[in-house]
């Protein structure tokens, strides 16, 4: 097998719909546990996602002086750290309950890339603890060995849209930018990929579906699982004979790559 190609995976929103159904609910559970009168709605959380990182998001929120928030920055940051810790506990419980299944095509594509010898890395602003919680669940657990390494929010000083995490993954993998496709679901993630010099396939999530993805090599509704859940290409090259994103399609997104020939066939 060869490691001539790499696939770099974002986690939240890309591998599973973790934001609205997972992290947001976990934040709200942490607020309730601490007796705080805050509940983040889907619309409100959509805006808060402009801030990368859970603790950073909390600091930003607390600085807007919601009822019950400390008036000084030191107090706000201490509260943010406590709430983030409790949020991680609640998120782990949500994940363990099986409420966050993989998005269509994620399991299939990870397995296919592993079988073909592609280097796969997780590159995320989430903390390692949150990634571990997700990958401990079925059907993610059998896929853990497919990843050569992880770069998480704990590992970098600057989170997405800064390209630091992707630059670190490139250094550790030994791959060159022209060999790698990154999978993202958000404009911040896309910007980080582009600034690192990589090609990006975007699969918008529930909380990013209405946003624009300037600079993406392609945008699809999801990775697809054959006839049952076919992929729709929103932007970029047409699919080949498959009804889903496969390795040939990803190779076609790389510099000098040839996209698969379009075909009306929907064979899986």
From TrEMBL:
GO molecular function, one term: hydrolase activity
SUPFAM superfamilies named among the record's database cross-references: HAD-like (SSF56784)
Domain of life the protein comes from: Bacteria
Membrane spanning residue stretches: none
InterPro entries membership: CbbY-like (IPR044999), HAD-like_sf (IPR036412), HAD-SF_hydro_IA (IPR006439), HAD_sf (IPR023214), PGP-like_dom2 (IPR023198)
PANTHER family assigned to the protein according to its UniProt record, in alphabetical order: CBBY-LIKE PROTEIN (PTHR42896:SF2), XYLULOSE-1,5-BISPHOSPHATE (XUBP) PHOSPHATASE (PTHR42896)
Protein name per its UniProtKB record: Uncharacterized protein
Native organism: Candidatus Synechococcus spongiarum
């Amino acid at each position: 097998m060869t490691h001539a190609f790499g696939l770099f995976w974002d986690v939240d929103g890309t591998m599973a719909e973790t934001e609205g159904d997972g992290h947001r609910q976990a934040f709200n559970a942490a607020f309730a546990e601490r007796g705080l009168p805050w509940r983040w709605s889907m619309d409100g959380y959509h805006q808060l996602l402009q801030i990368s990182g859970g603790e950073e998001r909390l600091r930003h929120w607390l600085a807007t002086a919601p009822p019950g928030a400390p008036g000084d920055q030191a107090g706000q940051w201490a509260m943010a750290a406590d709430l983030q810790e409790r949020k991680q506990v609640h998120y782990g419980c949500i994940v363990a309950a099986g409420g966050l299944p993989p998005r269509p095509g994620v399991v299939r594509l990870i397995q296919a890339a592993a079988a073909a010898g592609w280097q796969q890395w997780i590159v995320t602003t989430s903390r390692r603890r949150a990634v571990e919680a997700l990958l401990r669940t079925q059907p993610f657990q059998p896929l853990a060995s497919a990843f050569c390494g992880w770069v998480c929010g704990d590992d970098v000083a600057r989170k997405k849209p800064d390209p630091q995490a992707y630059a670190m993954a490139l250094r550790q993998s030994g791959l060159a930018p022209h060999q790698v496709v990154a999978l993202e679901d958000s404009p911040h993630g896309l910007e980080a990929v582009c600034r690192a010099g990589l090609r990006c396939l975007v699969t918008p999530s529930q909380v990013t579906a209405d946003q624009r993805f300037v600079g993406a090599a392609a945008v699809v509704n999801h990775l697809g699982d054959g006839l049952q859940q076919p992929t729709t290409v929103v932007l970029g090259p047409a699919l080949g004979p498959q009804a889903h994103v496969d390795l040939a399609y990803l190779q076609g997104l790389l510099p000098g790559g040839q996209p698969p020939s379009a075909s009306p066939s929907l064979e899986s």
